[in-house]
Amino acid sequence: MDELILNLKNQIIEALNLEEITPDDIDSDAPLFGGGLGLDSIDALELIVILEKYYGIKLASPAEGRGIFKSIRSIAEYIEQNRTR
Amino acid sequence: MGDRISITGYGIVCAIGTDAEEVLNSLQSGESGIGRMRYLNSRHSELPVGEVRMSNDDMKAALGIDSGRMVSRTSLMGALAVREAVSRIGQERFTGRRAVLISGTTVGNMDINESSPLPVSNECGRSTEEIAEMSGLEDVGTCTISTACSSALNSIILGAEMLRRNEADIVVAGGSEALSVFHLNGFNTLMILDRERCRPFDGTRAGLNLGEGAAYVIMERNADDAAAYVSGYGNRCDAFHQTASSPDGEGAFLAMSDALSMSGLSPDAIDYVNAHGTGTVNNDDSESQALKRVFPDCLPEISSTKSFTGHTTSASGSIETVICILAMQHGFTPASLGWSVPSENCIVPTMGHSGVRLNHVMCNSFGFGGNDSSIILSRSADDAAVLPALEDLYDVCCTADEKVTSREELAGLKEFISPMESRRMGKLMKAAHLSSLRALKAAGIERPDAIVTATSRGMFEISRQFLSDIHTGGEELLKPTLFMQSTHNTIGSALAIRTGCHGYNITYSHGEDSMKWAVRDAERLIRTGQAVSVLVGSYDESTPDFSAFSERGGAEAPAEIYAESIVLTRVIN
User: Fold this and answer.
1) Which domains are seen in chain A, by residue range?
2) Is B418 in the A-facing interface, judged by CB distances under 8 Å?
3) Residue B315: is its pLDDT beyond 90?
4) 3-state DSSP call for residue B7?
5) Are strands B505-508 and B450-454 parallel, antiparallel or unpaired?
6) A45 and B477: CB-CB below 8 Å?
7) Active site includes B149?
């Protein structure tokens, strides 16, 4: 799980171009939207691309992402259960 | 002193017909033009589209153009629609008069450019020049507006302004946009394309279907053979988000309110609204809130004809304006096809009526970044508003002028915007923000009354990256971050979001003349008393391969970054 979380943080930093942030700066349990990192709807679409690109998980709509993208940990848990690669 | 702005000619090409008569028949018989892809060569053939039912060769034959000539579908459709419009009044009507063709497009000649192995730039203005030439209007002035999906309606609005200020005697205005693999994939990354036929305002709606087409109207002052009249219009900015509309539809509300106020009509005088109604969850919710605010007592009949044509993006404003003219002339309201389930937050659209009298109708057109516009059309001269002539009341001065021309300077942006906020911005977007925020600071203005932007190639580097990803990745796993800032209006609308400016917002993309048109518009706003301060900017960028390509062709290499922002203000005597 720790390795998956670290990989995921690095993939998010790259995809969202979070230039001045390191994996250590991101709290795995903090909310990603609203507070915490303060991501928005376009970032959510980028997270959907990450799920497909690295883990072979295809979401049908942004609405599906809402329950999954609460925190880094919640995404990692979803990936563990649903990954196809 | 005032004038009736008469619409004397019109022409239309879209999925439900290649002239006004065919479009009328489809509207009255409730036949949608949305279906399987025939001409667009995309891997996403599962997506329904509203294609014009003519091949490029069919169009060249209809226009009498050499079949070997390389010309974009955007230009071909545009020329067909302009020719139809001109044929209704006769070419001789242009003789000896000050004429201008104003065309709206965003994709421009992308259908050709996207398959070229060369690093060609996507200059919207080229398609306008081609349309003028192919439709026999070589001698008229040309102008191109690019405000994403409201481009064509903003072209009509500019035309009306030019007539009211006596800058022209006859204006051809509208827009054209062909389907492209580029923007089909772009909308796909935003996950707003419905896999089935779109259902605007329906409780089960799941997005839009892209369409294509072109439409133009011809406008003159006080012509006695008019098909309809322009009684009011508004151009505002939602200033909320690059790709989403605000929950209360503020920009749409302001645009419709401005149009009503100009027309002098009360809300209950509007007999029908042709909504923007794309079929996305967000647009239809937001537009419904705005409509309920504009029409608090009783909603008029409302429908979205995108259920017939698909979302014709930059051309939608003029295509739907022509549909409104046909509806008024023939006394019917077009249906909102596909609607069956009420949606909690949405208006209930009409399923269409015949045998009705429509004296005044409203047409909405909204674009990415919140470039929201609305127009009111009237059926007869007796009903039409007499719009006061725009007279010059004030002088203009330039109170600030700031330039950013190198990558090194971009570090200065931190003074205004955090790295987290600027993380998605390409280099030109950063440069435009830096020069604009410096200029506003120098002028002592936090929020200008209006924002007018000029760009020839737009966000070129990011668009090239997105196109390259399409080719290398086989139309899969593309980045929404790239597409969302690929439209030419992305800078002007991002500046509106940054400054909280809900005022007039427009982007000119007409090659080297872009800034000339932008300054002219900003000066018009100030001289005629419509704005006190206007932020005007000229923004363009290049890529190493494009610069090398330009130099090989004997041209001067374009600058890597060029951002110049000026603040124009009313002179206080």
Assistant:
1) 2-82 (1.10.1200.10)
2) no
3) yes
4) strand
5) parallel
6) no
7) yes
